[in-house]
Structures are given as structure tokens and as C-alpha cells.
Amino acid sequence: MKKIVLSICCLIASVAAISQIDPELLRKPPKAADSLKLNMDAVYDRPMIKAGKLPVSLGGYVEANYQYVSEQGISEGHQFQMRRLTVFMASSIAKRLKFLTEIEFEDGTKEINIEFASIDFEISPLLNFRGGVIMNPIGAFNQNHDGPKWEFVDRPLSATQMLPATWSNAGFGIFGKKYTNDWVYAYELYLSNGFDERIINNSENKTFLPATKENKERFEENFNGHMLTTTKFALRNKRIGEIGVSYMGGVYNKNEDDGLFLDHKRRVNVFAVDFNSTLPYSRTFINGEWAWVKVNVPSTFTEQFGSKQQGGFIDVVQPVYRKPVFGFEESVVNVSLRVEYVDWNRGTFKSTGGNISDHVFSIVPSISFRPVPQTVFRVNYRRNWQSDLLGNPASKLAAFQVGISSYF
After folding, report:
1. ∠ CA 252-258-259 to the nearest 5 degrees?
2. Is the CATH number of domain 2-407 2.40.160.10?
């Protein structure tokens, strides 16, 4: 494994020596073309390098951080983490054919995942075919999750603890978009392998969609033979911003085996709305997402397994200093705030009528420095208030985090 990682790094370094980085900028005053980019464009909208006439472009990003976390006065002390190293490889196979893959090494090499690996065939702007390992476009974060684009060390709780962040599957689908003056609208529709019974049979002892990511076999076989449908519609105005509406749903249990009936088909359905905008005069960037989850939980399960969940986040990013620092002409200092909430079990107890209180609320102020648009140094302070199923006094968590993330 070390040889593989070393080989990739050497290849990137050698190519970089004879090429230049695509000057794609992040968190900058929007140009006319940039102001009509959508979250769905994020998969290809990355700085990559290419050498001469070689058919392959390379790129990636890295994330590392330090943190000190205390929960109810108990701490594990100072922690340094290598969160992830992600490598991109893209190729224009022919005029209407292109390929891109995203390979992620998490926590050193504790996990190695192919998050995206698909061939795109362009028929027309409104009709394109995609097949391979696709990223299910539920919400915005799942499509646009690269670390250097965010002012926060941690990914949103709703995207990682309610929805399965960077959720991808083997599948096929179509997508397209259309420009009309100051507007652009787009759609995506995919059929893929989907969830399995881990969403209710897991170590968390609650309905927990991210547990299905443990099923590595989903890239070669479908757990129950039923397709997962994921669709999204997005609309953007270059002055107002972007709004997206998405849906993901399918059967998650195995209802029959070799013709033998096991159970009724049980579905999981997820709806999400996302929005982002940059205010024209203050250049304040606002980004938010909210999702609803419905799971058909068997009646034999206790009420700690929620059939309804909801949660989301909103980020507000304000540039406060835009002047050259240490010779970096495009440097910027941002102050930011994230507010997030997740309710894993909406509803009341049947026996008592009391409210089920399995939820968490969090605020995260941040100060970040971008010497160049592709690199961010960030300092975060996190406060979490998490309530258990019975609504006992909330467990409090405080965390001080320092991190760096950069494209390369």
C-alpha cells in the first residue's frame, strides 16, 4: 500500500514539474461564467494539471488538522489527524467522451474509497449519459464536498450523521443543463445499487443511514435486487443564487430470497433542499441544506429506531480582509459561522405521548485565511448540545480545531 501511495505522489510531482495549475479560483468575486456554475459542476470544476499532450489530467486535495475535544469535562487530550488525501484523474477520451475518477484515502490509509469513477457521453447539453460509480446527488454537500472549498474543519453533521456523506454507488443515469440569459437550470436522474438493512441493524442502535457505507459489496452486487432512484433539479440566477431540490429512494430490505418470501418491501425516502447565494455588496456567502428522511421501520423494532428524521445546516462566510499578505496577491481572511441541527427520531412515544428527543444542535464559529484561493488555513470552535432519547439534560461538547486543506 505504501508503494502505491508513493507511486501516485511521485507521478503527480513529476507531472507538476512540467506543467502549470489551472488557475481556477475559489471564494473570489464571481465572474460572469462563475456566477452560473452549479453544485453539479463540482465534479469537474477542480484545479488539475496536465503535461503536454498526455491524455490524463491529475489533481487532488489534502486535509489535516489538530483538535482538542472535551465532552462533559472528559477529554482524550491533544489529537493530530490526517483526515484525507484525495486524488483526481480525468481524461478526454474523445470529443463527446470523458472520464473522471476520485479516489480517497481516509485517516491515513484506514479507508480507501472510490468515490467517483464514471464515463460521461455527451449527446446534447440537455442530454448526457453517465455510467460507472456515480455520486448520488442528494442535497448539495454530497456533490460539492471538497475540503478546500469549506471554511470548517468538520463536515456538516446532517451530511455525515444523518445522510451518508460522499455516498456513491455503481449505476447509470442522465443529466443536462440549459442556459437562458441570467438563468441556468439543470437536472440529474440516476438508477443505482442502494441501501441495505444496516440502516436499522447497526452499532448505533438507531436508524442510521451512514451505516450502509460499510457495505463495500454494493459496487459489484445489489443487496436486494431493487434499484435506488436519485434525482435532482437545480435552478440558478447569477444575481440571486442557486436552489436545488432532490430526492433519493428505494427498497432497503431483502424481501425475498430464491423465491421465498421474507418480508414486505420496506422503503427509505430522502428529500432535500439546498440553497447558496453571494450578497452583491458585502460579498457574504450563504450556503444551506435541509433534508427529511422517512424509513419504513418494522413494527417489531423499538421506538428508538426512528421512522422520520430531519436536519440541516447553514453557513455564513464573510470576507473581512482582502489585501496581499506575505506576498500572496489574492489572500483573504474570512470569518464564518455554521449553525446545524439533526433530529434522528421525530415524533412521540406511543406509550406516553411524550416527545422523542434524540437530537443534536451545534454552532461553529470560524476564522480562516486563504493565501491563495485553493488553500485554506482554518481555526474553529465547536459547541454541541446533544439530547438522548428520553430528553435528559443535554450532553455538552466543546472542541477547538485548527486545520489546513489544499488542492494540489
Report:
1. 90
2. yes
> What is the C-alpha to C-alpha distance for residues 43 and 180, in angstroms, rounded to an integer?
23
Query: What was the pLDDT predicted at 4?
Result: 39
Q: What pLDDT band is residue 209 in, cutting at 50, 70 and 90? A: very high
The domains of the chain are located at 2-407
Residue 151's identity, in one-letter code, is E
pLDDT of residue 32: 45
The rounded distance, in Å, linking the Cα atoms of 115 and 61 is 14
Alpha helices by DSSP H, 150-276: 157
The Cα 229–Cα 274 span in angstroms is: 19
Classified as helix, coil or strand, 260 is strand
Pairwise pLDDT comparison (15 vs 185), residue with the higher score: 185
Q: Where are the beta strands (DSSP E) in 167-301?
A: 168-180, 183-192, 228-237, 241-251, 256-257, 260-261, 267-278, 285-295
Per-residue confidence band for 12, with pLDDT thresholds at 50, 70 and 90: very low
- Name residue, grid cell 441493524: 201
Q: Average per-residue pLDDT in the chain?
A: 90
Q: What's the Cα-to-Cα distance from 120 to each of 43, 134, 153, 167, 334, rounded to whole Å? A: 12, 11, 32, 19, 36
Letter string b/e over residues 348-363, b meaning 16 or more CB atoms within 10 A of that residue's CB = eeeeeeeebbbbbbbe
Residue with cell 500572496: 328
